[in-house]
Every structure is written in C-alpha cells, then in structure tokens.
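Why should sequence recovery work at all? Because a backbone constrains its sequence more than one might expect. Tight turns favour small or flexible residues, buried strands favour hydrophobic ones, and helices have their own preferences. The token representation captures these environments compactly. In the example below, the structure is given first.
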C-alpha cells in the first residue's frame, strides 16, 4: 500500500517536471537557438529573443537556421503567417541535412488571396529524393494568431502535427525497401520568399508587391531531442500513434487533405511508390 507521504512526494515531482517543461517552452531565447542567415536585415530577433520575424519585399526575402543539429526528437514552433493577400509567397519551415544526398522534413505554407485558405505543403526527402508531397487546408486562419507546428522524428516514424493534432505520418518501411532518414543530423531552417511562378494556383496568381512588405513571425521554439544521438535517451521513441491520435489523423486527412501523391494516377501511371501500398 502506498503511503500518503509517498503520494505527496510523487505529486511534487510531477509538478516540478511540469513546471520545468512549461518554463523551457515559454522562456525560449531565439538569440540562443537561431542565426539569421540571409535577407540583409529583413530577418530580426526582437524583444530580447522572444520574437523572430522574417520579411519579404520586392528586393529580397529572408531566412534563419538553428545553431544546433538534431538527430531524432520533437521540434515545436509557434508561427503567425503572412496576413492579407499573401499570394505568391512561401513560408518554409523544415529540417534538413546538407549535401546532394540530404534528408529533409518539410512544412511549406503557400500564400493565398485574401479570404482564401492557405495551402500547407508537406514533403519528406531521403538521400536527396523527395516527391512525397501531401497538401492540406487548415481548419483555422493561420494568420490571425500564433499556432504550433511540430515535427516528431525518431527511428520508427515521422509525424507532422498542427496544434498537437497529427496530420501526416511517414513510417520507417525499410523492411520493404523504402529509404528512411535516420543517419543524418539535421538543422532547422525557415525562410520567407517569392515563388509566384508556382506557389498560388500553380502560378496563375502573382505576388502583388503593393501589399509588401510581407512578414511571418515566430515564437516559443522548443526542441526535445535525443541526447548524444542515443536512442535509449529519446522520449519520443513511439513506433505507432496511439488509437486516439490515429483517429485524429484519419479525420484530418479525410476532411482537410487536398493532395496526396499516393493517389495521383497521372503522376504515377506505372504504379505508386512502394510506401503507398503500406500506409
């Protein structure tokens, strides 16, 4: 039988752990986590590291990169996307290694005309090969406030989440010959740039520079990573989503997915990629 004293000790430990997690999440100093890498002053870290902004005008966009590399873990960032008429712009937020055979895990937010939904574009690259696109419309306006976008990455699976709701899972299917990113450490990148040749309605809608400058804002970065690349130290070694999140994933994909490479017959007339038959 557990004593009242033991229960109190356990409760206090839980409260301390929760408190530490909250402080870590809320007290992120973006000066310590990121470097502005391009944009000639269009990227800025403000309010003593609380907010990071990227800006695009008709001369240049801007971008940043994490100071650390990560090999497995869970990355969270709150982002407020470009408001108003953002057609032609792309806000990219992704993990990537270096080199021609790089691995990459992508969120890309494709701009829109005012009142139209943003398109959230996702992709996974392994050994330099991508072409695994899935696209979604969000169930909220991503420009009116900050919202959390997360990547969980471990040797078993990659899970893309929005506001802690899983929208996509890419499982490790090496057993059937599908390459999986598990050996190259990645940095976190983000950029705001002009891609009006393809970003909005396939390039039919061009960037309206009268609306510039365009700005995306970031805050509350959090990285729970596996220490020393040691799998046993990783808190996120889930092999599969639990039943609740499996159902949430299914509902999101049924209601909000607008493109899935695994159903694009025109693109793959000779048959879909191997992973499509296993997911």
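From this structural description, the recovered sequence reads:
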């Amino acid at each position: 039988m557990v004593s009242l004293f033991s229960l109190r000790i356990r409760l206090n430990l839980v409260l301390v752990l929760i408190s530490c997690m909250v402080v870590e999440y809320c007290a992120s100093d973006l000066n310590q986590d990121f470097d502005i890498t391009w944009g000639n002053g269009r990227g800025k870290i403000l309010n003593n590291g609380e907010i990071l902004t990227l800006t695009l005008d008709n001369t240049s966009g801007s971008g940043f990169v994490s100071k650390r590399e990560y090999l497995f873990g869970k990355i969270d960032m709150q982002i407020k996307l470009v408001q108003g008429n953002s057609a032609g712009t792309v806000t990219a937020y992704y993990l990537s290694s270096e080199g021609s055979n790089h691995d990459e895990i992508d969120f890309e937010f494709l701009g829109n005309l005012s009142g139209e939904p943003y398109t959230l574009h996702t992709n996974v690259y392994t050994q330099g090969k991508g072409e695994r696109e899935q696209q979604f419309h969000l169930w909220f306006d991503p420009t009116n406030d900050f919202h959390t976008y997360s990547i969980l990455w471990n040797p078993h699976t990659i899970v893309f989440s929005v506001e802690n709701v899983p929208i996509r899972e890419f499982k490790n299917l090496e057993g059937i010959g599908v390459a999986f990113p598990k050996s190259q450490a990645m940095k976190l990148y983000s950029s705001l740039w002009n891609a009006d040749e393809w970003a909005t309605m396939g390039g039919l809608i061009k960037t309206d520079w009268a609306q510039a400058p365009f700005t995306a804002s970031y805050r509350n970065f959090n990285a729970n990573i596996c220490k020393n690349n040691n799998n046993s130290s990783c808190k996120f070694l889930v092999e599969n989503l639990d039943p609740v999140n499996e159902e949430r994933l299914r509902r999101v994909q049924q209601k909000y997915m607008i493109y899935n490479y695994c159903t694009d017959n025109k693109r793959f007339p000779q048959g879909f990629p191997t992973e499509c038959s296993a997911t």
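A few observations help interpret the result. The longest strand covers residues 214-225.
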